[in-house]
Structures are given as structure tokens and as C-alpha cells.
């Protein structure tokens, strides 16, 4: 099973590709960030894109799902609900 360090290592190796796909900032949160992931856990990322378009968002989401072979929840930085911010920011790990 993959773990937090594996995810972060892959994202570091993919940094140039992620930038080419418009990623300004990408951070891990959720069960993987907390070290509580199970075999069926999805990956939760908070992302800031240089241009926010549907195509760019979906391209990145599908790329991450291909990389990790699991479901990815991709949340846009400026779309994170205010009531969730304290909990998400408390466990956030910058990845790219």
C-alpha cells in the first residue's frame, strides 16, 4: 500500500510535469496527510492553478489518478469552504 512519503516523493519527481499542467501550488490533506490512509482511501489535494479552466482541472485530476491508481479529490484553493479551512490547513502538506 502507498503511504504519505510515497505520494510526496512521486509529486516531487513530477514537479516539472505538474507545473506544465498549470499547477502553482499543490498540497496534500486528508487521511494520507494524517498517516491514517487505508487501502481504499482516496487522495485529497488542494490545488492552485495558473488558469482555472475545466479542461486544466480535469487534465490534472486524471493525471494524478493515473499516477497513483486511485481516486483523487481535487479541491481548488479558492473554492475551499470557509468552515473547512481550519481543519484542512491544520493537516496540509505542501507537495508541489
Q: Can you put this structure into words, describing what you see?
A:
The chain has about 100 residues and is of the alpha+beta class. About 45% of the residues lie in helices and about 20% in strands. It has five helices and four strands. It has helices at about 5-15, 15-20, 30-35, 55-70, 85-90, and strands at about 25-30, 45-50, 70-75, 95. Strands 3-2-1-4 form a four-stranded mixed β-sheet, with helices on both faces. The chain is globular. The mean pLDDT is about 95.
Q: Strand portion, in percent? A: 15-25%
What order do the helices and strands follow?
HHEHEHEHE
Overall mean pLDDT? 96
What is the number of helices?
5
Structural class estimated from helices and strands: alpha+beta
> Distance between termini?
22 Å
Tertiary shape: globular
Largest sheet report: 4 strands, mixed
Low-confidence stretches: none
With strands numbered from the N-terminus, the spatial order across the biggest sheet is 3-2-1-4
Helix content: 40-55%
Beta-strand segment tally: 4
Gyration radius, rounded: 12 Å
Amino acid at each position: 500500500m502507498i503511504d504519505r512519503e510515497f505520494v510526496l516523493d512521486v509529486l516531487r519527481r513530477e514537479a516539472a510535469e505538474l507545473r506544465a499542467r498549470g499547477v502553482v501550488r499543490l498540497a496534500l490533506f486528508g487521511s494520507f496527510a494524517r498517516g491514517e490512509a487505508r487501502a481504499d482511501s482516496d487522495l485529497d489535494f488542494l490545488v492552485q492553478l495558473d488558469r482555472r479552466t475545466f479542461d486544466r482541472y480535469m487534465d490534472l485530476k486524471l493525471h494524478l489518478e493515473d499516477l497513483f491508481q486511485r481516486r483523487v479529490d481535487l479541491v481548488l484553493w479558492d473554492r475551499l469552504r470557509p468552515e473547512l479551512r481550519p481543519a484542512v490547513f491544520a493537516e496540509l502538506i505542501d507537495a508541489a
